Fold:
Amino acid sequence: MTALARRLWDHDLAHAFRHDPLAILSAIVVAAFLIAALLAPVIVAKDPFDLRNLDLIESLLPPGPGRPLGTDDQGRDLLAAIVYGTRLSLVVAVLSVVVSLGLGVTLGLIAGFAGGFLDAFIMRAADIQLSFPAILVALLVDGIARAALPGDMHARFAVPVLIAAIALSGWVQYARTVRGLTLAERSKDYVQSARVSGVAPARIARAHILPNVTGPLFVLATVQIATAILTEATLSFLGVGMPPTSPSLGTLVNIGNNYLFSGAWWISVFPGLALVMLVLAVNLLGDWLRDALNPRLG
Amino acid sequence: MMLLDARDLACTFPLPRSLPDRLARRPRPGIAAVAGVTLGVARGETLGLVGESGCGKSTLARLIVGLHRPSAGSLAFDGTVVAPTVRDRPPALRRRLQMIFQDPYASLNPRWRVGDIIAEPLAEQPDAPPPAARREHAAELLARVGLSAADARRHPHEFSGGQRQRIAIARALSTGPDFLVCDEPTSALDVSVQAQVLNLMRDLQEAEGLTFLLISHNLAVIHHMANRIGVMYLGRLVEIGEKTDVFARPRHPYTRALLATLPRLDGVRRPREAVAGEVPSALSPPSGCHFHPRCPFARARCRVEAPALADGVACHGIAEGWIPS
Amino acid sequence: MALLEIRDLAVDFVTRRRRVRALDGISLDIDAGEIVGMVGESGAGKSLTGAAVIGLLVPPGRISGGEIRLDGQAITGLGEAAMRRIRGRRIGTIFQDPLTALNPLLTVGEQLVETITTHLPMSRAAARKRAIALLEETGIPSAGRRIDHYPHQFSGGMRQRVVIALALAGDPQVIIADEPTTALDVSVQAQILDLLRRLCRDHDAAVLLITHDLGVVAETADRVAVMYAGRIVETGPTAAIMGRPRHPYTAGLMRAIPTVGDLRPRLAQIGGAMPRPGALPHGCAFGPRCPAARPDCTAAAPVPIRHGDVLVACRHPDLTEAA
Structure:
């Protein structure tokens, strides 16, 4: 165990990390958000999503003793709302990246390996999707879900719908990357060698090519998490994401937007700051990872 | 009877057509990588195929193992005509026909363990032994190519180029083949390592009665390993014969030119007659005999008519006797 | 005094973990009008030697000892700006792959004129005339027309001729040719080597020909330096070394190469592989693979000893000669 720890500590990546203060700072910020999100019920006494905990008498109070960041229009403690909102934002972002990663890798692998009609079909679909802004694709998916599900159902399925909407708007990047890498791997002799031995195409794609194209995806996925957090926040801000009953960071900014000019600035500003810090830290970490791994990506 | 018989084997790779050509329904252009090659390989022998870049020797190798689909011609193995592509061939045939690739840095999957790499061809057979037996078999093969059984657990990047080529050979041997296509097996290796690999191939051939089709641009390697040699130029076989005959009395002007480029290692410098020009692009090969623009003996007939292979050589001048033997 | 003198050159790779000696005690002289072949297997340090001479060592490699003198003047300590003036003007380079040595977006004429005007006080018109003359000299037919073509319009052999013309553009005294024929077909190889010899003679240049191919050296070089694991193990006139190798590595290499006319069923092989820099055995680096190794071979790295025209870094060359 100590040997493994020493190898990890001595790894070039670990070394590069130790010598980059910005990377360390970003990692600390991201870790703080993750811990807060994971331990939300421990940190916060009252679940802000539980309607029984709301008290309108305490609404729109400025920051003060017992409520460090103030309260919102429903009387929720804003710190609690931010902690729970971060949790929601992270869950939606990570799951949507996982889904779009799975989708993109599968489609990219098929396109690159099969070639011909399938390749043309998948990549044209990707091109068409790229010509819409990601947010428009997400709005479209959300709109369809809204129309398909009855009113009260929609609020209950807000999280899966958001995940699907963001995942569908993000798979193209992975698909393109994987397709390009697959094209390069496909012509290599280890693949030809497998063909000579009669290995079936599907197994060649899965067992031979897939493990050789996943490396660069981790960097891409890290950066995409930041994008997904922002997309989620944007959708929620526009009122098509998380409902006010279980607000994410974007929803909180949206709520606060209504009171910005009536003096209750804290409802928008504190969730907004949290959002900026989180996205910036994830982005910086992703950039650092890309730079640190870059010489070996080839 | 020949173990492997290729008749008029040809392979043309299509090129993309421009839009006007497509609209005018002009025929799709293509590169004739292999243009009608007929040759046989006898059981237990080594046939060496030599030629410069673009001569089609690697494509021919891939046609034989079924990696490319021939555009014409047929291939027979052990007296039976075989399907053109490897997916259509029965497992029993795939087991007998294996290939060693040029670059051992590219022919082994970097993410796999050596033991799994070696056992894969066997694992793909319908009557594959259980995993434990395959592991044992892989360990045995590693020992046979001069590595240790413990190497099965390591990854390819932990080995040197020569060791990797040994692993590639072990993999090719795992199904107990009788025919090995070796495409430039030592071109990526240093000379001292090349000697190790060539010696290993020799030993294995003797021990297992293997038949080799050895492809190389290196005349000395071909000379060392082959019983017979074939010379290719721009997709065509221009000369084929017993090694001793071809090296002692090369007949085709191209074979003569190739032999003239052989360096001598004694450090005594002789003037060598460098053949003029370069191999033309396979995209637009010369008319008639492909070698005529570089041939010192070329006559009018050579420019219009492609010579057929007769008595082991494809040359008008030899057939008609106006090129001195 | 030789035109290019390399004295006790040492190159280290310095990483955060350790310092690895990649080249050690490289000493070599090249006279004007002479081709010295530097031969060895991959990783022996031959390309590194070439890179050190032209001042293009890639970090973390750095010269950590010894001296390189060009026409009597030390160039080892020069700064990057001074080295840039020497490169192209006084030292020309020819690389293995002619495709990457040329800029695909410029015509060969533009690249030649650019190089000529950088190094020689010439108008563009005069430079163009010189460029055409260089292309003619390197054997490119109808050079006046071909000068306006792009690199991709040339065949592999013609492209390498263009690279050679580019190396000659500043009229250098020294030419470093790193595997100049490795990417070419055998029939073209012979043409390029002939060209290299003619240019060396006509320009009275000192040529360092780096190659893994003993055949290329045998046909082209006046003298040979055989490299093994970052050191020169044997150096001397080509005929002397090829005809009578004294170092067991050179002898082993010669016997490992198949040649036409040689009817041995098996090649002599050198067991094992060359050690990597930083993992060298004690004493003679070739010791563990040497058929003639004696107990004293592990004492220290052998110093080169003169035998007639030949320098051999081996304590027991007599054992190799007897074999």
